[in-house]
Automatic annotation (TrEMBL):
Record protein name field: FUSC family protein
Entry keywords, A to Z: Cell membrane, Membrane, Transmembrane, Transmembrane helix
Membrane disposition: Multi-pass membrane protein
InterPro entries found in the cross-reference section: Memb_transporter_dom, YccS_N
Annotated source species: Gelidibacter salicanalis
GO CC terms: plasma membrane
Residue ranges occupied by any Integral membrane protein YccS N-terminal domain in the UniProt entry: 72-338
PANTHER family with a match to the protein in the record: MULTIDRUG RESISTANCE PROTEIN MDTO, P-HYDROXYBENZOIC ACID EFFLUX PUMP SUBUNIT-RELATED
Subcellular compartments: Cell membrane
């Protein structure tokens, strides 16, 4: 019960609920105002305008939010005007319906915010069918009030933002900490769950994509506002938390271990339990901090991380005592490298704790504005973006075509069968139909189940009471919850949307059971049409659409590798370029992971070369981790100068990645060459580690058992650099072979 109440408390303090309250306030206020004025007809188009233009109100910079709402307001007014004037002429109306459906859905090529503006336009088109206006003056009057509703919502959004300017930042920081904590705990399970690694890795792909998405939103929220308005105390705190969360994510990525090697070295799992427990504790700490951030509670003084870190160090000593040097050296270095990365994560977690506790000596952010702006991913809004997508090769173009056919078919079907509320079928198609078959199927299922649950709840309430005041109160509450949950839990949102529609219609039409009946039937019809259209019409099976995503991941991995090489040569000069390349590589691998998740949602018969694709995704993911492992070590340690053998191996790996890109693009291979023998370079790097190991063995024989920090770091560096480069070379070669097989298969 306590956990349940805690979840409710966090939800009520979240920006998602705050957004639902915003919309409810914008909708209810005109209704109350015009009710007392006595001219209720004016209230409905204003309410509709507010509701239609709310989707564009998503987290981001104020300028982008204002632009989105203004554009959607103009778009909804224009679409309403066209539909209302064309309604008396059925053939013309069908043509207009097709044209609007196609071109407005194609706006989605400009990114997520544009897709919500597109949704507003399509929603306006459907709701225009429910409006009965005949004369030109009635139409223009209605459209003008609709525009006023859009501007009214913009004003409400602006006022609410001023009242709680950091609500979105806090929400996304909290969600990022939760996801990062879950990711840490999943990595803990990967250490010892030998039989479940493929399943856990697929879950890791999902978490990586989600964390990358949160980071992108936070960059816009934190960096754009910081550029425009300077830096406040809260900005400073939030930026510090964000930077620490990014560092933690990189450190986690940097230790995507060679689990086969771990299984070989540690047949007895007890030597991994301390490290596993440390990951769990750090993950739990991040999730606790996430809750405290939302609730704005004080951070506890109790810090268990130091004690848990101490247990990991004791475990390493115990391993050395049990196995004995020199036999224990390789395993001890693996455990020590693992401990180092966990220690750095623990430092970042403790840094977040200090910031949230307002400790005075917590770090300050020193970021140049021109540097931070480079981390922003800016959307291109030129006309050529649409022109480039005007081809059947474009996933979004095919989606626009099938969406248009589905909408026209549903409208004609509803007209021929004289269905009472045809626009409900159209509305269902708009809400659930997505470019990807799996997501459309999932949303269809959630929509139908949510509608049935909502209808059942509404029936129960109608049987218990026929009180219009209760209907009105429930309509308001359900609207708030529906809009709050729409991006978090679509099934729950569908429940409250159904409840809201039933009670709104019940206020107008006393026969609530008839409303529920039509609502359920129309939802099932719309969902069925959407799923069938996605399966039958110009389908976008992910196995055939992966090439561009793979090429992008390979290119970004290559650039990340070169940036890491430059970092090794000069840390001070190249750290910013390294971090930019790291961000791009993480985003590219996140996109690849998302594409793979979409592939798993496709029908089994359409998942061509599934195991081959899974192998390629895993290889790309492992490469990013191996590169991050080298980069993280360089940033956090004093390193020796980079050798020519290091550069030669980097060049070989980069060339192999370039070769994989050329295979996918059907272009000639154009790579740099080196005069250094790669096998000899590889042997020399390994020899450097073996030489240090022999020196250490000789010192042990002399009785010098204590290991100084410099020698330890040199051993760690030689072992990590040599092993990671050899591993990267093997990975890149395996990836090239897999790429060739994939290219031949498609």
């Amino acid at each position: 019960m306590k956990a349940y109440l805690k979840t409710i408390e966090i939800f009520l303090k979240s920006s998602h609920f705050y957004r639902g309250v915003r919309l409810t306030f914008a909708v209810v206020t005109p209704l109350i105002l015009f009710y007392f004025i006595g001219n209720f007809d004016y209230a409905l188009p204003i309410v509709m305008g507010a509701f239609l233009n709310a989707p564009g109100d998503i987290p981001g910079s104020l300028k982008r939010k204002v632009n989105a709402i203004l554009i959607s307001t103009v778009l909804t007014m224009l679409i309403f005007t066209i539909i209302l004037f064309c309604k008396p002429y059925l053939p013309l109306l069908i043509v207009v319906l097709a044209a609007i459906s196609f071109f407005i859905s194609l706006i989605s090529v400009y990114g997520f915010r544009a897709s919500l503006v597109s949704f507003s336009g399509l929603l306006a088109m459907v709701l225009a069918f429910a409006v009965q206006k005949e004369t030109a003056s009635e139409i223009f009057s209605h459209v003008l009030l609709l525009g006023c509703g859009g501007l009214w919502y913009l004003l409400i959004s602006y006022v609410f933002r001023k009242l709680a300017p950091k609500k979105d930042e806090v929400q996304f920081l909290s969600e990022t900490l939760t996801l990062t904590g879950e990711y840490l705990q999943l990595r803990a399970r990967l250490l010892t769950k030998k039989t479940k690694r493929q399943e856990l890795m697929q879950k890791a792909f999902v978490l990586q994509s989600q964390i990358n998405e949160k980071h992108e939103i936070l960059r816009e929220l934190l960096f754009l506002e910081r550029k425009r308005s300077g830096r406040s105390h809260y900005d400073e705190k939030h930026l510090l938390i964000f930077i620490s969360s990014v560092n933690i994510f990189e450190l986690i990525e940097a230790k995507n271990l060679d689990y086969n090697d771990m299984d070989r070295l540690f047949k007895d799992r007890k030597y991994l339990r301390a490290s596993k427990n440390l990951n769990k504790v750090m993950g739990s700490q991040l999730m606790t901090l996430s809750d405290l951030l939302i609730k704005n509670d004080k951070v506890s003084d109790k810090d268990i991380l130091l004690n848990t870190l101490s247990k990991v160090k004791d475990n390493i000593r115990q391993y050395i005592d049990d196995v004995q040097l020199p036999k224990a050296r390789e395993g001890a270095l693996v455990l020590r490298n693992l401990y180092d990365y966990q220690e750095h994560i623990a430092q970042e977690v403790r840094a977040i704790r200090r910031v949230m506790a307002n400790v005075k000596d917590s770090s300050k952010v020193s970021l140049k504005r021109q540097d931070t702006s480079q981390f922003l991913t800016l959307q291109e809004y030129r006309l050529n973006v649409i022109l480039q997508n005007f081809s059947l090769n474009s996933t979004l173009f095919r989606h626009a075509l099938r969406f248009t056919v589905a909408m026209v078919f549903a409208f004609i079907l509803g007209t021929l069968l004289d269905i009472r509320n045809t626009y409900w079928i159209l509305l269902t198609i708009i809400v659930i139909m997505r470019p990807n078959y799996g997501l459309t199927k999932e949303r269809s299922k959630d929509r139908i189940v949510g509608t049935l649950i909502g209808a059942a709840i509404a029936v129960g309430i109608v049987l218990l009471t026929q009180n219009v005041i209760i209907y009105a109160v429930l309509a308001i509450i359900s609207l708030t919850l529906a809009f709050s949950l729409v991006q978090q839990n679509y099934k729950s949102s569908a429940v409250f949307i159904t409840i809201n529609i039933v009670f709104v219609y019940s206020l107008i039409n006393p026969d609530a059971f008839q409303v529920i009946q039509y609502r359920v039937i129309d939802t099932i019809l719309g969902a069925s049409i959407a799923v069938i259209a996605n399966y039958m019409l110009w389908p976008s099976w992910e196995a055939l659409n992966l090439k561009n995503v793979l090429v992008d991941a390979l290119n970004k991995n290559q650039k990340y590798l070169i940036a890491t090489q430059n970092l090794y040569h000069d840390k001070t000069e190249n750290e910013l370029a390294y971090k930019l390349a790291r961000k791009e590589a993480f985003l590219a691998i996140g996109n690849l992971n998302s594409a793979f998740q979409r592939l798993t949602q496709d029908p089994k018969s359409k998942q061509k070369e599934f195991q081959l694709i899974y192998g390629m995704v895993t290889l790309n993911q492992t490469m990013v981790s191996a590169i991050a492992s080298i980069g993280s070590f360089i940033i956090n340690h004093q390193t020796t100068p980079a050798s020519k053998e290091f550069d030669a191996l980097i060049l070989r790996i980069a060339n192999t990645l370039q070769s994989s890109c050329s295979i996918l693009n059907d272009t000639p291979i154009d790579c740099e060459t080196t005069t250094i023998d790669i096998e000899k370079a590889q042997d020399k790097l390994m020899e450097s580690y073996h030489s240090l190991s022999k020196t250490r063995d000789a010192n042990i024989l002399k009785g010098e058992t204590e290991l100084d920090t410099e020698t330890l770091h040199n051993l760690q560096e030689a072992y990590l650099i040599a092993n990671q480069l050899v591993w990267l070379k093997t990975l890149s070669e395996n990836l090239e072979k897999a790429t060739l097989k994939y290219h031949e298969a498609i």
